[in-house]
Predict the 3D structure of the following.
Amino acid sequence: MRVYELAKQLGIPAKELAERIKLLGIKIKSHMSSLDADTAELVRQELEEEKEKAIAQNVIEVDFPLTVRELAVKLGRRPSEIVQILMRQGKMLNLNQTLEKELAVKIAYDYGFTLREKPKLETVYATAEKDSSSLSPRPPVVTIMGHIDHGKTSLLDYIRKSNITESESGGITQHIGAYQIELEGGKKITFIDTPGHETFTAMRARGANITDIVILVVAADDGVKPQTVEAINHAQAAKVPIIVAINKIDKNPQGVDMVKQQLSKLGLQPEDWGGKTIMVSVSAKTGSGIKELLEMILLEAEMLELKANYQRPALGIVLESKVSSGLGVVTSVFVQEGILHRGDVVVCGLHYGRIRNMYDDRKRALKEASPSSAVEIIGLNGVVSAGDKFFVVPNEKTARKIIEERKAESKIRQPQSAGGNLSSLWGEKEQKEFRIIIKADTYGTLEAIESLIKSIKLEEVNIQVLHKGVGSVNNSDIALAEASQAFVVAFRVSIESKARELAKQKKIQIKRYQVIYEVTTDIKAALEGMLEPEVKVVNLGRAVVKKMFNLSKVGTVAGCIVERGKVVRGAYCRVIRGEKIIANKSKIVSLKRFKDDVREVIQGIECGIVVSFSAVKEGDVLEVFEEEISARRINI
């Protein structure tokens, strides 16, 4: 091979290659000289290593995705030059169209540059500390699970020395509650009491693995029930240690051995029977065994060596979020790292806000909350979802930047056209689709499960049973699940090893069940997650605009009198002119009485109102309202 032929392959001038070959100590006369195959390969490798080193030093930080024009600017090339490169590769893109990340990186590499994605702002604040030297011990987080009436909340009620149960509907937990207790010696334990195992599963699915220990409550007078088995499966799936509290021993002391026998068959061997599962006999009524249970929790926590970083800006998980009349958005959060302070600016989901007030589980005002604490915060500018991560940033400017980044990223992830993957799990925008494949042990149970699924009627979600059959889950089932983005229900059947490997590789969800109740519970949780939240409009009052004022520091202010009800700062309003609604959902930005800012103004009082709708005129009517947003529930 001649030098000029090798130069053509490498894409560099022949004379330049000849000079670089001489620098390698290889004797040649000119670019017309010949090279044997081994020498040519040696030259190729040397030049490739040289290029790699140069590229590693020429790093350009960018925000992906890049347009063709942006890439050209970053590389210092004419945009038309990049367009020609793309055309040679069969990519017909104009200057304002975005490039695939891999393609942009390759083009930059060919020019001798490495493209490195700029670190997102949120990664700086939302990443947990991994350096063990900066970590300190934290209290354990305990989730109480079990059958619906085995005394979970009553047990927690006794521990807290307060009366939670009477405030709940029928004595059953209706919301996520998180409570921290302090024991003798200053040691603390945080308890989480959930309204069902679907909540535990839903939070884990969102990455909210906040539980360190599960307390499984089983009644001595009732024994193991389907929900008990379900709780065990969920805890074991989360790889969380289980401590069993055998409750109601005041009713049936003899039932303790029965419960231990039943749990042994489910793989939970009691310690006093030679197993590894701690089991404590307790009574939520008399308090018997409660002290021992708490000691066992602390012992287990000590073995787990639970730690957190107290020095960094706080981050954690949302337990619950709702709109409260008079308070605005109230968000229950669990602090995982750092210390959360009143006045901190918090980012969560697509919302942010400065914490105006913070309360513990007894509604006591707090100035700060440390790791493993659960608190209610007021100040976010919107309702977020349970399981969302929150983190503290230095100021509102940083928060807005992060929200803008997230919104831009969510737009990028949306399909550009209908020509994409038509077998999306959620289907078209108008109606979502919930696709399922059922494999069962007998035709009887298969028909029962299918009948149960088909009995669910929802306008927003089209439920499709794509395939059903008797026998183990096989490769054909996984292939169908991948093509249709469905999940597989395996009821009392095995999963073939090849199918299991393929499902893992393709990230196909296979759910195994032993009890039909478990199937309904999971489907209910999945469907509820697909439903749009329920928005209830609560009318607050009505005000009439008497005169308009232009103030230099405030802007346009509507001088009003409240005719009915009340006007609340931060609420929404409709602007009505004559019989026509000219603005359907404006916000009351500011509310004043004379020169003072006020939170609300009642009927018969004059006030100054600044509305986000700038075209308000004298004679307009403002109908003030709030929106109560709540998750929708379905009954199966």
